[in-house]
Structures are given as C-alpha cells and as structure tokens.
Amino acid sequence: MEEPETLDMPGAGFILFNKSSMSSNSPLMLTLICSNGLYDIPKGHAEEGEKPIDTALRECFEECSILLDDVEVIDGLTYASGPLTVFGACTNKVPALSKNPITGILEHERLKWVTKQEFLSNCIFYLKPFAEHFYSAYNTHYNP
Hints:
Layout: E1 11-18, E2 29-33, E3 39-40, E4 43-45, H1 52-64, E5 73-81, E6 84-91, E7 110-114, H2 116-122, H3 128-142
Parallel strand pairs: 1-6
Antiparallel strand pairs: 1-4, 2-3, 2-7, 5-6
C-alpha cells in the first residue's frame, strides 16, 4: 500500500517518546514503518465531530495498541500544520501493530523506536516539521 504524500482531511496523531530514554540527549520516538520503508507516526483521519485529541488517542490505539493514560500525554505539547494536529506523549507501554478495525488491513509492516536523526532521514516528508518541533520543545524543557 503506497503512503499518501499528504494528509488531505483533518486528522491527528501522536509523537510517542519512550519514557526510558527521556534522560538522554536524543530520546527515542516510536515509528511505524510503511511498506515503502518510510517512517510514519500513529495518526489518521478524524471521524465526524471528533476532537483532535480524541482522534489521536483512537488512532494510537488502533495502529500500535497503545492506550494512553492522561498522565502520559504531555500537556501543552501540540503542533498543528495544515489539516494535521500532532500531540506528544511519553510512555513505557509496549507497542504492537494491529489491523485497521474497519478495513481489516495492517497499515504498517513494522514498528521500532528510533532517534530524531533516524526519523528525519527516513520519514514521510510532511512529518519532518512535527518531529523538529517536538524535539526542539523537548530540548527547551529538559536541556535548558
């Protein structure tokens, strides 16, 4: 399945940081690996009347089986560009790929925790500003 170049409808997702790596200079983030090898994040289209945070939480659970608790969502760490809103979260939960509950299709081939540099060198192009924003905010907050 070829990955779209842009998200053309309102949607939301998460950049998930690995809580165990938060004390390092480059905390690890979860990537979902597409069939073309590009890195993605848990995200998707909003359902009618759904708030962005609810879309992001639903997509995170649907795509990587992580049900985030309120304390794992990083308050104030949100970035919107075009139709996509991305939130930040920090978790030690173990991700697992799961099939789309509507289509029954596995949307990604693998997942893994990667550094900022790894993500930026191989991600879907429109996700780069989101990763840059979140790592910049991390550095401001944790490494002043």
